[in-house]
Design a protein that fits this description.
about 140 residues, 3-stranded mixed β-sheet, 6 helices
Length: about 140
């Protein structure tokens, strides 16, 4: 099966980021422009949080806050789980399932962000792997 490092290389692109001082409205605009459900919150080169659609729904809308006046730092998820390129896709899926989140930052050994994976990325990779296995088995059987 594909490694996390290979998945990131195939996926390409840089993670979508915002500043902790940005408004929620700005972050939502960035998310919409990039067609993503989460953005990393960076203070310079340091990952300090993640902001997701779930954060918006639960910490802005349900609490009656205003998107233009609320800063990301007020509502972002600060305890960010992450993985490294050495983690397997199965480990990532397990972590995401166990904690019920859909996005995982990937940090290298220097704690620098090298990417973000979504549950959709993992499902796509898993389906691709299963199709490969099926094709190999069919080839073996029909020989």
């Amino acid at each position: 099966m594909q490694t996390l490092k290979q998945l990131l290389e195939e996926k390409g692109g840089l993670p979508v980021v915002v500043s902790p001082k940005d408004s929620v409205y700005h972050a939502l605009s960035v998310m919409a422009d990039n067609d993503v459900g989460a953005v990393l919150v960076m203070d310079g080169e340091k990952l300090i949080g993640i902001f997701t659609e779930r954060d918006y729904a639960r910490k802005v809308i349900l609490l009656g806050k205003n998107s233009r006046d609320t800063r990301i730092e007020e509502i972002m998820t600060q305890k960010v789980a992450y993985v490294t390129p050495a983690n397997s896709l199965e480990e990532c899926m397990s972590l995401m399932t166990q904690h019920r989140f859909r996005h995982l930052p990937v940090l290298d050994e220097n704690q620098e962000v090298v990417g973000v994976i979504s549950i959709g990325d993992l499902v796509k990779a898993t389906i691709s792997h299963q199709k490969f296995i099926i094709a190999q088995l069919e080839h073996y059987i029909t020989g």
